[in-house]
Amino acid sequence: MEDTTHLAALVAALGFALAVVFGAVANRVNFCTMGAVSDLVNMGDWGRMRMWLLAIACAIVGVNLLSLLGYVDVSRSIYTGERFPWLSYLSGGFLFGVGMTLASGCGTRNLVRLGGGNLKSVVVLVFLGLSAYMTMKGVLAEVRVSLFDRLALHFDGGQSLYMLIARATRADVGATQWAVMLITVVGLLAFVFKDAQFRASRDFVVGGVVIGAIIAAGWYVTGHVGHLAEDPQTLEEVWVGTNTRRPESFSYVAPLGYSLELLMLWTDKSLKVTFGIAIVAGLLVGSLAYALATRRFRIESFTSAADLGNHLAGAVLMGFGGVTAVGCTVGQGLSGISTLALGSILVSAAIVAGSAATMKWLYWRLA
Q1: From start to end of the chain, where are the E strands?
Q2: Buried b / exposed e across 325-342, counting CB within 10 Å, b at 16+?
Q3: Cα angle vertex 343, ends 340, 158, to 5°?
Q4: pLDDT tens digits for range 107-136
Q5: SS3 154
Q6: CB 66 within 8 A of CB 223
Q7: What's the half-sphere exposure (Cβ side, CA atoms, 13 Å) at 111?
Q8: Rounded to two decimals, what is the model's pTM?
Q9: CB–CB of 102/321 below 8 Å?
Q10: For 198-279, where are the E strands, in sequence order?
Q11: Counted domains in the chain
Q12: DSSP SS3 for 330
């Protein structure tokens, strides 16, 4: 038991350290999926979207190399399972995209903004966390299960693209994984770096590479450092220090719910600081440290009641949508896609669609 406790603390500490770097870098390069969609929809600017795609490419390389070399078993993660709840993926992703647009960014972005002094993000993060927890274990869980989760497909062997292709073609799984990884990454990198303006942007290039590497490092921490072939108590395989009890990487919907739970029930000794909770704190600390070091810390607040209402509605939609879709722009859009899971690609597309549609609607109202 003592060894497990120390290992869980190590996993959380490493997650915190990685998140501090993530927070500082995200603040420096203005990493934001909603912002990337906004730039593209409203100005035709692909800069931040290319940075997001570069981060995805780097994460795919890192995670699949870890998998192929036997360090991390991503097939045991929540993203690659055999059950494919397509309605939850589409609906949850779309609602999350709507919510992050109304709330001026996803959970990750709001943590970064809070570190920079934005008080609006306090409201967003609290209501996002409450909504997420209610969707996992509270009254909204009934809605999620009864209306969305019932409709699902089943893929024998899991929903990773290489597994689906290998089963369809009867090819070797390892060789197929190599091929799918290379084709995907080469395609993404070719698109990302074909733009001379992006190639000249040091911040965007470094930001994409570092964030992608952090996602891969998160998988290594939980999937290798925190992995025990036999739990000392149950004698079962276990991944220590994670809320899912599986290998995982960065995500910022469910972890916000668990963070609120820990703060509200601090004296409950059964609750521990997990990897997910640690990366919430680490992201905030990293962004705050960068903002203070560069003198960019500025207090901001709501401008009107309508502004407050939009952020509240957006936060609730993100909490419900993110849990329903099993992840957010980072959880599905980076960590999930890095496993080449079909569901993660579907969720990410739905998030972008929801965000773009909401932007169009908001601009139509103002016209």
Answers
A1: 83-84, 153-154, 227-228, 238-239
A2: bbbbbbbbbbbbbbbbbb
A3: 70
A4: 999 999 999 999 999 999 999 999 999 999
A5: strand
A6: yes
A7: 31
A8: 0.96
A9: no
A10: 227-228, 238-239
A11: 1
A12: coil
